[in-house]
Specification:
The chain is an alpha+beta fold and 326 residues long. It folds into 2 domains: 5-211, Jelly Rolls; 216-320, Arc Repressor Mutant, subunit A. 37% of the residues lie in helices and 23% in strands. The chain has 10 helices and 14 strands. The chain has helices at residues 137-141, 169-181, 188-211, 216-231, 239-246, 250-261, 265-283, 288-294, 300-311, 315-320; strands at 5-10, 15-24, 33-34, 39-46, 49-53, 56-60, 64-68, 73-76, 84-92, 97-99, 107-108, 129-134, 156-161, 163-165. Strands 12-2-9-4-7-14 form a 6-stranded antiparallel beta sheet, covered by helices on one side. Helix 2 packs antiparallel against helix 3 (188-211), helix 4 (216-231) crosses helix 6 (250-261) and helix 4 packs parallel to helix 7 (265-283). The longest helix has 24 residues, at 188-211. Residues 102-120 and 123-147 have low confidence and may be disordered. InterPro entries: Homeodomain-like_sf (IPR009057), HTH-like (IPR037923), HTH_AraC (IPR018060), HTH_AraC-typ_CS (IPR018062), Tscrpt_reg_AraC-type_HTH (IPR020449).
């Protein structure tokens, strides 16, 4: 099957676990493993790795990146022909993800495996140099495998190419070196910095994927619409208002929102209004009718129905469950 894109619902963001680099002399090859329980991002800076996964073979050369899945069998297809240097990163995804490979696609969450990163996964193949950076073991065990995606409010789709030529490889190499340079840090600031660098890496790969999509204009309009709706959720929003503000026909705007967010503008708007209402119920003692008006619902009864349909509680009952009982 072809390698396409990982489509990840965020937040929560993917979590960095461990990283390293290896140099393989000619004749060495990547190890064979299956169901390792973590995603494995490989970035080659010199030479080439020849890797197969579930029937698809890839040559990963300088300036190219490959992501191996946690639930599939991967293996070498031939030894390195020249000295090969590459970086690698293990990470987890704690939210729903899928691979966009048409009818044969699959989905899941690698966190269900509960596996730790495979120690020495790359270095055991005969490389003459290896280094690795680990996050704290407690940090790995503390990943919220049972967290509901709804606990994070509105989610977005992160699209990561599983195989890509990097547009700016030197920037990616610098980030990899930054992860390795933090290997001596065992404090919160160092761990936080690792996650920040790792997320910047993923964002760069995400941009690589977007650059290959002819529908990038669709994504831009959907994101522009979402931003406008968030900034104006307290106001009355009509199709005519969307047309005036965004300079596109409402039907096209709706099509773009469905493609990117799987929601119409109105559905997106009402979900955001309900999230803001939850905040006001938690942080203020305002009457429910005032909160409904404050987040853009003109009819308090309609607000109550929408809230109950979304949360399975009335607004008053939602607030009451967080009140301190004497």
């Amino acid at each position: 099957m072809p390698l396409n894109e990982l489509m990840i619902q965020i937040p929560p963001l993917p979590h960095f676990l461990t990283a390293g680099q290896d140099v393989f002399p000619p004749g060495s090859q990547h190890v064979e493993r299956q169901q390792i329980g973590v995603f494995d991002l490989i970035v080659v800076t010199g030479g080439a790795l020849h890797i197969g996964e579930a029937g698809t073979n890839k040559r990963v050369g300088p300036g190219q990146a490959l992501i191996l899945r946690p639930d599939l069998h991967h293996y070498p297809t031939k030894p390195c022909e020249a000295e090969t240097h590459f970086y690698w990163v293990h990470f987890r995804i704690g939210s729903p993800w899928t691979e966009s490979i048409g009818a044969s696609g699959s989905s899941g969450s690698d966190s269900a495996s509960g596996s730790s990163p495979v120690s020495g996964l790359h270095g055991s193949a005969g490389g003459r140099f290896a280094s690795r950076v680990d996050t704290d073991k407690n940090e790995e065990e503390g990943l919220a495998d049972h967290v509901q995606s709804s606990d994070f409010g509105h989610q977005y789709e992160l699209r990561l190419p599983r195989y890509a030529a990097l547009a700016n490889p030197q920037e990616t190499y610098a980030d990899m070196d930054g992860l390795l340079a933090l290997s001596a840090r065992a404090d919160l600031a160092g761990s936080w910095r690792q996650q920040t660098i790792f997320h910047r890496l993923l964002f760069r790969l995400c941009k690589e994927a977007q650059g290959e999509h002819t529908e990038s204009a669709v994504t831009k309009l959907a994101e522009r619409t979402a931003s406008w709706l968030k900034a104006n959720y307290r106001q009355s929003v009509t199709n005519e208002r969307l047309r005036e503000e965004l300079n596109y026909h409402p039907i096209y705007i709706t099509r773009c929102m469905r493609a990117v967010y799987d929601r119409t503008p109105n559905e997106f708007l009402n979900e955001y209004r309900l999230e803001q209402a939850k905040l006001l119920l938690l942080t203020t003692d305002k009457p429910v009718t005032d909160i409904a008006a404050a987040v853009g619902f003109e009819d308090p009864a309609y607000f109550a129905r929408r809230f109950a349909a979304s949360v399975s509680l009335s607004p008053s009952a939602y607030r009451k469950q967080f009140e301190v009982r004497g």
